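Q: Hi! First time doing this. I have a protein sequence and I read that you can turn it into a structure. Is that right? Here it is:
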Amino acid sequence: MSQTLLEKYEDLVVEIAETYLDNMEVELGKKYKDKNHQVNASLSDRQQIDLKEKYNVSSNEFAELYMDFTKMEPSEHLKHAMDAFTASG
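A: Yes, that's right. Below is the predicted 3D structure, encoded as structure tokens:
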């Protein structure tokens, strides 16, 4: 049984998630100040380059891994937290 990229690079996936959540925090702050702001927590080019270099992952493998990451579904807890934030704004 072969590992998926998400399994193979579990530490990298965790760091992508942490970076994504940090970006989300900044984006939600912008949304709080400007209701018309379009939230985009995606990793910046610099963040992607830094992670690729840190984990020594090829560009193609990182792109595939990041695409798989973005397809992951949020947990029910995260969905409820996001809904509560949206309702409060």
